[in-house]
Amino acid sequence: MEQGKLIQTINVIKAQECIDFLLTRPKQEIVGLGMLYGKPGLGKTTFATRTAFRNGYTYLRLEATSTPKTFAKDLLTSLYRNYCIGDFIPHGSTNTLFKQCIQILCEQEDAVIIIDEVDYAFRYHQLLGSIRDLADETLAVILLIGMQEAKDKLSRIDAHYFDRCNYFYEFQDNTKEDIMQVTKKVMSDPVDKTTTDLVWNYSKGNLRQAIKVIHMLEARPNKQTPLSELVLSEAL
Ligand SMILES: Nc1ncnc2c1ncn2[C@@H]1O[C@H](COP(=O)(O)OP(=O)(O)O)[C@@H](O)[C@H]1O
Ligand SMILES: [Mg+2]
Predict the structure, then answer these.
(1) Angstrom distance (rounded) from CA 33 to CA 163
(2) Is residue 123 lining ligand 1, measured as CB closer than 6 Å?
């Protein structure tokens, strides 16, 4: 299997349009806050990590244990690394750490920060507020990535915050053409219509499932077994 690719699915194209919109906005007038959200397995994290890697953006993922302080530390460490400011062991209060992040970002034109699993920030007003300050006080693009309910949750928690978010895109189920494209570009074995139909039938638009089916097809001991005889349903 070919790994590390970013196949240009419809979702990838739309998500890229979001970043382009925010990067080319009139920066003095509009804050660079946006949100991508949607069901699991559709390709949000893959888009975020691979786009960040290719373009030198800063990618951070919140975790169940994240707090305002750990986030501030992680962000500052990533910014130091990303902008080659040097090795740095962050210290000081949460407030001091965020102030340093803002200072660095003020000197970086066209900085993009992607914050994945942003739903974990919803229980901390301070964390959400600090992320908003990053968008308000710098010209950086701040792209939040959340689960399917993230947009609604944000509007319920803080209508004012929601109002500042200038671009939303909900990842959709991948189309059959998308799944076919991924299968052809990722699978090392020859791909025919039977293969793409099988991957589509088991994945139903979910890329995580599609990749699992592709791997199982490639890993099966006897490649001569007709696909129609394969029983994948129990394993998936
Ligand atoms: N654009 C893409 N190109 C290639 N593989 C992809 C792409 N999007 C997703 N995948 C594959 O699908 C899996 C699940 O996608 P992921 O980004 O984790 O979904 P989400 O973050 O929406 O839950 C990834 O681990 C990756 O193998
Ligand atoms: Mg994800």
Answers:
(1) 10
(2) no
